[in-house]
Amino acid sequence: xxxxxxxxxxxxxxxxxxxxxxxxxxxxxxxxxxxxxxxxxxxxxxxxxxxxxxxxxxxxxxxxxxxxxxxxxxxxxxxxxxxxxxxxxxxxxxxxxxxxxxxxxxxxxxxxxxxxxxxxxxxxxxxxxxxxxxxxxxxxxxxxxxxxxxxxxxxxxxxxxxxxxxxxxxxxxxxxxxxxxxxxxxxxxxxxxxxxx
Length: 197
Hints:
Strand content: under 5%
Number of helices: 10
Oligomer: single chain
Shape: elongated
Order of helices and strands: HHHHHHHHHH
């Protein structure tokens, strides 16, 4: 009985992975609101009935991907200690590197698609909320200042990562993350000083 359950779970995971990968492939060439269940089914080489046995529609699939991304960030951030990050800012960027590596294909395709900016913005806003809750619960600073700091930092990070994806990812992700950790915590002067050494 247990063997049958495990076999069924593996089958479900495999089918959902096919659906997800098909969706990720399609967002390279289409706006999200133009992608249909038929498109996904054809690309995944499954029938529409199989798709509907897992999702009610494209937007439920999008919500699942979005929630997974936000959950990854939330789980990574909730265990970080702000004081440790201040002493070694690369801690948070090594976590970001792990998250991006886990879903490289998804982030790669989303980053290159200006037409899917709404989806990216939705995820960005949720990540900002999580950062505010995770970090600023640990330090005394007024809410408006928190918002400005988070907006500035997260928007800058998203822009740099998008640029990295669009430029062919020639710089290793770990090097990019180290550079960003210095920029975020020590500014341009801190980064330039590293190059002088």
